[in-house]
Amino acid sequence: xxxxxxxxxxxxxxxxxxxxxxxxxxxxxxxxxxxxxxxxxxxxxxxxxxxxxxxxxxxxxxxxxxxxxxxxxxxxxxxxxxxxxxxxxxxxxxxxxxxxxxxxxxxxxxxxxxxxxxxxxxxxxxxxxxxx
Length: 132
Fold this sequence. Notes:
19% of the residues lie in helices and 37% in strands. By secondary structure, the protein is an alpha+beta fold. β5 and β6 (107-116) form a beta hairpin.
């Protein structure tokens, strides 16, 4: 089912489906509204994903993220909604979204949500010796 926000999302074919690689997208100016007071909430988002067959188109992602500007939502709910929308569209091998919300009521909120394709396992990281 398509919601108002997902109408903005678009994709393109992954040019390197044979390889696991990570795409990192930083979004420093996310805005939504506090559902209780209607005051603006500001956050920085980091979206990291290992694509399978599709990648998200960046201008479309920008429009999608800015479509939340007038939406009232709790930090936890909106971060999970964004993960659900993007992961449902892309069906990535792995996706992690980190939302770092500015202070509200003297507290900061940091929300981390993840999606993992069934059966996918990350490669073991390679440790190289220091080169200096």
